[in-house]
Backbone:
């Protein structure tokens, strides 16, 4: 267990604002527009919960033209979502595990061209919280 706690500490953050935003997203279900800077790259999108991320990728996968691939990806992400829900439920009974990932929908990574068949809408992004160098919260509509 000690190795796992050390690994989690290295992957989480002590930034009170990021933790507050993640808490609002995970517990209260709100969504926020963010721009993150990670090792010089800029990532913008809507901050969402891990559950919403898994559900979104599962639904997006179902739209894949390759129906076999669509079924496989949708099944795998649905399994991950269920495992996450189970883990979250168990943690509610015990000491909470620190969050280690941040999730964005409709993500745009600066300097990266989306696939020709894609638009910014529907881009799903997941990154390590500890890798965030800076961020901007977009509160005005």
Residues:
């Amino acid at each position: 267990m000690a190795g796992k706690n050390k690994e989690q500490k290295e992957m989480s953050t002590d930034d009170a604002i990021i933790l507050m935003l993640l808490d609002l997203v995970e517990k209260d279900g709100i969504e926020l527009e963010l721009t993150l800077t990670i090792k010089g790259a800029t990532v913008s999108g809507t901050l969402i919960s891990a559950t919403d991320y898994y559900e979104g990728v599962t639904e997006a996968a179902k739209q894949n033209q390759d129906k076999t691939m669509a079924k496989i990806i949708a099944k795998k992400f649905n399994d991950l979502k269920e495992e996450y829900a189970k883990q979250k439920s168990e943690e509610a009974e015990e000491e909470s595990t620190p969050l280690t990932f941040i999730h964005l929908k409709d993500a745009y990574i600066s300097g990266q061209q989306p696939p020709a068949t894609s638009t910014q809408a529907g881009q799903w992004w997941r990154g390590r919280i500890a890798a965030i160098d800076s961020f901007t919260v977009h509160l005005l509509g």
Notes: The beta strands are 32-38, 41-48, 101-109, 124-128, 134-138. The two ends are 45 Å apart (CA to CA). Confidence is low (pLDDT under 50) at residues 1-10.
